[in-house]
């Protein structure tokens, strides 16, 4: 049809009945088209969905668009992706149509059947396109973002959802009720309405399959079954019955021989002794623990077996004693210390199993750690245990008529084997107990007997741990079933003599040996010292870790060396097993080996041996059955990768390798190597792993020798090592991070959406269906008050008026570090002193009207008097921080630069500072001859001026406000007399300041709101200002709070640096301060003056810390100002409390605001920056297009106010910058109002609270400065977010700052600890930034405390830090350049 691609207009609305033939035809055609398209192509792979920039809100409730949900995956809403589906270009459901329909006020009208049929062909075509995405019947319907959900009856979804834009659902239910039903079906994830709708959560980039990847070949893999388990008539019905048979028939037959550390037989346990002692243990467990009425152990209870590895005989007796007593043994390792590696997890397992009794030997009991009273202490995480010694001398002899009840094997639990979850990264290192039933135990022993061909009286050498796995199955269980003789080689003997197991094979003519590839490797190293070796008696050399790739090379090398010693190739029998499945496969003796794994010549044929425990039978593989081969392709498992000596070219090392999972699916290896050759190992390690295993190494750490945690058998404790690495307690001597080469699945950066034209998005005060984000404080013109200062246009006139009307009223009181009054100023004193300074400027300085004067004073009374002296003389004052006497070389150049940039004709200061400016140290830093004339105000003239200067125009310049921004830029703004008076009036009204009030100010008085509060507000409002220089708090941290308490102050102002100093310095002194009478209950407002995002963590810590001293939490608030307007928000005394919202940090990176619940993943708390000042209007605008934004949308904060600065003061005359910052206009909407651009990103949100005038409160939330934001991977990151994550990463990180350098992210951390901890921070910092922000850190710099520069307002000077880093001036402890 010709109109099939036409965009529907608001007039294209229809009313369709339930039984309309049109709907049936459309439905039939849609189904046929969907089925036809589905046969042609496969379902599209879900791709990352793109954001929409428009949201339909409740103002369009009359319509039912196809997608008004918040990106949830509920079955009640089927979302369409307007950009992600292939049919979007063919006229599918369009969001803009719904918005335009809502704006133009079109309604759903009833039309005739003729009009219905006129658009039918286009409707059917569009509907068919939509239905082409849907599987009909038992189908998958794609949601937004490509996430499907399953529908059992797609037909029920077709009619109400897939209909034309503007067409009501074809049902008798109204659109309002249908919308309510759909809303109730939606999960109540975010119960907030002002939030940006994502199509889906952050999706990872879909990895496309590599076309060069090898394709699977051959037939489909089928389940393999082992050969049938043969039936032997004389097999015992249970393992206890086998023990009873051999203990009574062959009591003298040797069962177990233990060795001492010299390789000599220490003890021979016969089957008779094993039977009698096991009965003795069983009797004592059941009858001698507890009382007859309340025994401690009953049949079925669990009992821990704690025996050392050099005492297998006692452990074997205790194990069979538990089986005879029908209790469940849990063999565990001996805890050597209270904080043994992995001991806490074992304790948790014992507690969950209900273990209350631990069986042990006499020697082990004496070796356990004891308390001063001689009792065994409770180990960390362990339950309370009764330790029971199983030596015969400590046991009671059972009565002659007592015999254990021996039953046939059943499904009762036989024992619990302790294993470790090695392959589950979510619980890596967690201990688990594997329950083995008695029938499974017996069937497994029978299967091993048949597979290995065990016969009676055979000798087997066991080097493995007899408590678990292959060592337990062959050396303790199957050997007793077949009356075999086991030669147990302890680990302590292997450390002394690695050839001991081979010697015992030769000595006892052993037929079978159970070893690990590690034991074979050790034997290779020491075989040169042994000549008389004959292994011809061996018919099976069982390699317990044969499933590991490294065993291939060990078997190869061992066979090559010992083949001349009688070892046959078919003897080597690798096996595959696990605690859960027991023995899965083992190579039979005498069968030809298959070759597998990189051309290895080793025998790697393992054939299925599957124990069917449920049926109680075992089957084995026939001769012609395919073999089960383990290939060296398990890199993601972590410990499968090995570094042998050949790979490292002779460098001896002990690797510990584990995966590090990040970003859902990325497995990264971390080799931790004991080695001192730190220069050789990294390069060789990377070459070996890359060439052999083709996996990336995320982090390579070299630690000092023998510092990694060990297992009881001497191996490296994998999970404990990983835990130390993640905690930052590994203390390596060298670290090399390679995240850039390993991390390849970072989320794909979102593309910025094209902006919508003003005509289609703005109607009245709506933008994209939302209220325009604008708010204002109270109107100054409508406020009725008896402010007498309003009749004066200039502050100089206000001071003269106060000197005449209230001459003795104290305006300023300055406190010293002891809390006593250093000096004070009344109205008349300030007036007279200002007159004398004006005379000095005119007579000694020879200054004219409008000349600039630099005021270089320490915080105090002199600065205030000099400022008003300049106003009296008609000069323009510029306050400048004096140089620090102990740091002239770095602070004096800043003073010199401000004096020069401000074009100061004169410099006023005190006599002490004057000497400092002309000292030798100053001459070494700057050219002192270039100073303008310096006037010393300690020597003032006696006379008064002839007349006091009065400006001709309120718009003339009153003073210049210079400050260095956090980006390192020196900026001076011009403040007119009118703006100054309006500023003071606005603060007076907001804070309700009157002559009877007292305000405590602990701020630096050189710029911004700090200067206004210190110098100007008291003169205008008449209140008394108690001045506390922040530098005095360095010697007395409690000075500010003591002054607030002493003078019963209700309003106080401070900076973040002051608050942080009090929090850290007084944290442990609250009780002593309370004893000194410190009371903060009268404080009504405690305002933090800042030009940044509120620091919620610091303000909350401050509130909680001093809550016991009477400070109310609602009293602490923040203010917000910037260069263009020194104070936009200030909480004040009236109005609602500051609100806090939680936003999605991931959405902020895309300049979106998405409100979430507290505690949600990736949530970021933002606190309101105070109440908007009277006379101030703000609006949120797009910083690029300059268009207004809607409520709860992130944009630049623009301000319109009478106290806006007039512009930048610059000697370069950059008029375009000034016009853009101070005289901006919106691109559409209210294009007449002149706004000033703050350069800060934020958003407005209308709350449910009400202001004092009864209107709903608009809260402003500041996110961060545009100049500081970092553009990385197409997203906007704010440094404070990354820095907060890094500070949380480790307790030794006290401060952090980040910046970018050649597209690399540089993280600088201050270390509060020993320098040995510096290398621990490198992987932690890299990990936390990668996990929480999806960024790869380029450089990590560890520095000492105090290196990161911070200005007087407590803000980090990141650009100064960057310059110092590039100039190599930081003197770092360690610098890591991540590869």
TrEMBL record:
Family per record: Belongs to the DIP2 family.
Comp. bias (Polar residues): 61-71, 79-92
All copies of domain AMP-dependent synthetase/ligase, residue ranges: 799-1209
Region (Disordered): 37-56, 61-92, 105-124
Signal sequence bounds: none
SUPFAM superfamilies in UniProt: Acetyl-CoA synthetase-like (SSF56801)
Low complexity composition-biased segments: 105-118
Lineage, broadest ranks: Eukaryota, Metazoa, Chordata, Craniata, Vertebrata
Domain AMP-binding enzyme C-terminal as annotated: residue spans: 1268-1370
Organism for this UniProt entry: Ailuropoda melanoleuca
Protein name: Disco interacting C
């Amino acid at each position: 049809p010709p109109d099939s691609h036409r965009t529907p207009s608001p007039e294209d609305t229809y009313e369709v009945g339930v039984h309309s033939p049109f709907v049936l035809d459309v439905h039939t055609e849609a189904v046929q088209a969907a089925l036809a398209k589905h046969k042609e192509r496969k379902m599209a792979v879900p791709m990352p969905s793109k954001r929409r920039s428009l949201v339909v809100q409740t103002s369009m409730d009359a319509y039912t668009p196809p997608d008004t949900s918040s990106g949830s995956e509920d079955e009640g809403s089927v979302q369409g992706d307007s950009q992600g589906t292939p049919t979007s270009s063919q006229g599918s459901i369009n969001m803009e149509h719904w918005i335009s329909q809502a704006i133009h006020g079109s309604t759903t009208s009833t039309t005739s059947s003729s009009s219905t049929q006129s658009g039918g062909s286009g409707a059917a075509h569009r509907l068919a396109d939509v239905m082409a995405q849907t599987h009909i019947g038992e189908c998958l319907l794609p949601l937004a973002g490509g996430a499907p959900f399953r529908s059992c009856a797609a037909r029920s979804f077709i009619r109400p959802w897939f209909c034309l834009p503007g067409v009501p659902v074809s049902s008798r239910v109204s659109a309002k009720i249908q919308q309510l039903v759909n809303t109730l079906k939606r999960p109540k994830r975010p119960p907030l309405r002002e939030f940006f709708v994502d199509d889906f959560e952050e999706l990872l980039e879909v990895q496309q399959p590599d076309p060069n990847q090898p394709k699977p070949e051959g037939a489909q893999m089928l389940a393999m079954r082992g050969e049938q388990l043969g039936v032997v008539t004389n097999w015992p019905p249970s393992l206890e019955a086998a023990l009873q048979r051999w203990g009574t028939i062959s009591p003298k037959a040797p069962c177990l021989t233990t060795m001492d550390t010299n390789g000599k037989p220490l003890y021979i346990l016969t089957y008779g002794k094993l039977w009698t002692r096991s009965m003795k243990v069983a009797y004592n467990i059941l009858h001698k623990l507890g009382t007859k009425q309340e025994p401690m152990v009953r049949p079925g209870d669990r009992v821990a077996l704690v025996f050392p590895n050099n005492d297998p005989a006692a452990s074997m007796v205790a194990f069979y004693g538990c089986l005879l007593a029908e209790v469940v043994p849990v063999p565990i390792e001996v805890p050597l210390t209270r904080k043994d590696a992995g001991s806490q997890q074992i304790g948790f397992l014992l507690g969950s199993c209900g273990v209350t009794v631990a069986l042990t030997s006499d020697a082990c009991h004496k070796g356990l750690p004891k308390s001063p009273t001689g009792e065994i202490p409770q180990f960390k995480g362990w339950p309370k245990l009764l330790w029971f010694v199983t030596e015969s001398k400590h046991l009671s002899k059972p009565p002659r008529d007592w015999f254990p009840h021996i039953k046939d094997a059943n499904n009762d639990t036989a024992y619990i084997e302790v294993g470790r979850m090695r392959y589950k990264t979510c619980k890596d290192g967690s201990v688990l107990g594997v329950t083995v039933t008695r029938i499974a135990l017996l069937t497994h022993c029978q299967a091993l007997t048949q597979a290995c061909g065990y016969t009676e009286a055979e000798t087997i050498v066991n080097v493995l741990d007899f408590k678990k796995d292959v060592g337990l199955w062959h050396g303790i269980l199957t050997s007793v079933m077949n009356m075999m003789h086991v030669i147990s080689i302890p680990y302590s003997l292997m450390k002394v003599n690695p050839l001991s197991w081979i010697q015992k094979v030769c000595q006892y003519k052993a037929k079978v040996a159970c070893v690990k590839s590690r034991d074979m490797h050790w034997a290779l190293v020491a075989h040169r010292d042994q000549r008389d070796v004959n292994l011809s008696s061996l018919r099976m050399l069982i390699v317990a870790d044969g499933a590991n790739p490294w065993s291939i090379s060990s078997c190869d090398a061992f066979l090559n060396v010992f083949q001349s010693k009688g070892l046959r190739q078919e003897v080597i029998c690798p096996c595959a097993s696990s605690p859960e499945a027991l023995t899965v496969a083992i190579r039979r003796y005498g069968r030809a080996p298959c070759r597998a794994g990189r051309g290895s010549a080793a025998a790697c044929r393992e054939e299925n041996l599957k124990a069917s425990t449920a049926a109680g039978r075992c089957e084995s593989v026939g001769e012609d059955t395919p073999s089960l081969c383990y290939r060296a392709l398990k890199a993601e498992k972590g410990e499968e990768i090995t570094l042998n000596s050949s790979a490292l070219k002779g460098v001896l090392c002990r690797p510990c390798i584990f995966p590090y999972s990040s970003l859902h699916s990325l497995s990264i290896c971390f080799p931790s190597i004991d080695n001192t050759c730190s220069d050789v190992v990294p390069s060789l390690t990377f070459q070996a792993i890359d060439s052999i295993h083709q996996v990336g190494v995320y982090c390579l750490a070299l630690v000092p020798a023998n510092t990694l945690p060990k297992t009881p058998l001497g191996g490296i404790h994998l999970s404990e090592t990983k835990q130390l690495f993640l905690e930052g307690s590994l203390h390596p001597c060298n670290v090399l991070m390679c995240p850039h080469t390993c991390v390849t699945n970072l989320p794909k950066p979102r593309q910025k959406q094209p902006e919508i034209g003003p005509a289609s998005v703005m109607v009245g005060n709506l933008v994209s269906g939302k209220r325009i984000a604008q708010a204002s404080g109270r109107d100054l013109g409508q406020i009725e008050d008896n402010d007498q200062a309003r009749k004066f246009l200039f502050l100089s006139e206000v001071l003269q008026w106060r000197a005449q009307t209230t001459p003795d009223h104290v305006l300023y009181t300055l406190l010293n570090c002891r809390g006593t009054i250093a000096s004070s100023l009344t109205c008349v004193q300030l007036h007279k002193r200002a007159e004398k300074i004006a005379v000095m400027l005119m007579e000694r300085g020879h200054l004219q009207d409008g000349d600039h004067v630099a005021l270089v004073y320490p915080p105090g009374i002199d600065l205030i008097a000099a400022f008003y002296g300049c106003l009296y003389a008609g000069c323009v004052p510029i306050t400048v921080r004096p140089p620090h006497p102990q740091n002239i070389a770095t602070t004096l150049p800043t003073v010199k630069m401000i004096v020069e940039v401000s074009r100061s004709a004169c410099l006023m200061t005190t006599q002490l500072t004057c000497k400092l400016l002309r000292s030798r140290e100053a001459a070494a830093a700057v050219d002192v001859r270039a100073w303008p004339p310096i006037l010393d105000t300690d020597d003032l003239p006696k006379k008064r001026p002839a007349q006091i200067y009065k400006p001709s125009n309120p718009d003339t310049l009153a003073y210049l406000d210079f400050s260095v921004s956090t980006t390192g830029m020196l900026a001076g703004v011009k403040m007119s007399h009118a703006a100054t008076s309006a500023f003071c009036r606005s603060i007076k009204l907001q804070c309700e300041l009157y002559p009877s009030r007292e305000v405590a100010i602990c701020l630096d008085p050189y710029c911004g709101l700090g200067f206004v509060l210190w110098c100007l507000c008291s003169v205008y409002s008449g209140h008394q200002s108690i001045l506390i220089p922040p530098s005095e708090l360095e010697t007395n941290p409690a000075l500010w709070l003591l002054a607030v308490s002493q003078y019963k102050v209700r309003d106080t102002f401070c900076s973040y640096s002051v608050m942080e100093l009090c929090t850290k310095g007084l944290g442990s002194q609250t009780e002593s301060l309370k004893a000194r009478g410190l009371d903060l209950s009268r404080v009504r407002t405690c305002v933090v003056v800042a030009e940044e995002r509120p620091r919620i963590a610091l303000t909350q810590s401050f509130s909680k810390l001093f809550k016991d001293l009477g400070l109310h939490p609602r009293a602490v608030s923040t203010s917000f100002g910037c260069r263009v307007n020194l104070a936009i928000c200030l909480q004040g005394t009236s109005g609602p409390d500051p609100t806090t919202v939680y936003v999605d940090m991931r959405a902020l990176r895309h300049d979106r605001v998405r409100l979430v619940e507290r505690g949600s993943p990736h949530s970021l708390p933002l606190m309101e920056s105070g109440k908007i000042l009277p006379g101030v209007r703000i609006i949120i605008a797009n910083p690029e297009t300059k268009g207004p934004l809607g409520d709860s949308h992130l944009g630049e904060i623009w301000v319109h106010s009478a106290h806006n600065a007039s512009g930048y003061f610059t000697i370069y005359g950059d008029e375009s910058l000034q016009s853009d910052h101070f005289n901006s206009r919106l691109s559409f909407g209210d294009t007449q109002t002149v706004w000033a651009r703050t350069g800060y990103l934020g958003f407005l949100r209308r709350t449910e609270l009400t202001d004092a005038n009864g209107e709903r409160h608009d809260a402003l939330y500041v996110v961060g400065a545009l100049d500081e934001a970092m553009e990385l991977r197409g997203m906007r990151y704010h440094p404070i977010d990354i820095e907060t994550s890094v500070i949380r990463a480790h307790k030794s990180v006290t401060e952090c700052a980040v910046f970018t350098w050649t597209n690399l992210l540089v993280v600088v951390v201050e270390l509060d600890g020993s320098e040995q901890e510096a290398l621990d921070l490198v992987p932690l910092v890299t990990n936390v930034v990668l996990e929480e922000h999806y960024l790869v850190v380029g450089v990590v710099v560890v520095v000492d405390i105090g290196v990161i520069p911070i200005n007087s307002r407590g803000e980090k000077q990141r650009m100064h830090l960057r310059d110092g880093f590039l100039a190599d001036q930081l003197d770092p402890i360690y610098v890591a350049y991540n590869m």
